Amino acid sequence: MALALGLGGFDVEVDTAGSGTEALEALGRGPCDWVVTDVRMPGMTGVDLAACIRDRSPQTRLLLLTAYDVSDEDRTRIAGLGAELLIKPVTADVVARRCGLKGNRAAP
């Protein structure tokens, strides 16, 4: 949630989801440019979520975050999905740069 709040300071629309299932439901309501998700989540993993998103919305760019070791198998899956992986801790500014957000945060 803190990351979403930080990204909300840029001139972008940020939606949040509490699970992979909620993220897929949100994606079903309309397209998005980027999905930023944690690798480890309850229920569906971030890697499984990324695979579902890639199938449903090939144009959506994917950024996965983790504070834990990622298996070689998951790294291969992530790369095969055309997703990026960042190791935590990361700031909203780092994520914004990876998502191609230019310039400074929007004025409040």
Secondary-structure topology with pairs:
Blueprint lengths: L1 H6 L12 H10 L4 E5 L7 H11 L4 E6 L5 H9 L3 E4 L4 H7 L10
Parallel strand pairs: 1-2, 2-3
Helix pairs in contact: 2-3
Report the sheet-strand fraction.
5-15%
The share of residues in helices is: 25-40%
User: What is the CATH architecture term of one domain?
Assistant: 3-Layer(aba) Sandwich
CATH class of one domain: Alpha Beta
Number of H- or I-type helical stretches: 5
* Major sheet details: 3 strands, parallel
Radius of gyration: 13 Å
CATH topology of one domain: Rossmann fold
Low-confidence segments: none
Tell me the strand order in the biggest sheet.
1-2-3
Structural class: alpha/beta
Mean pLDDT: 89
Q: Oligomeric form of this entry?
A: single chain
N- and C-termini, Cα separation: 19 Å
Order of helices and strands: HHEHEHEH
- How many E-type strands? 3
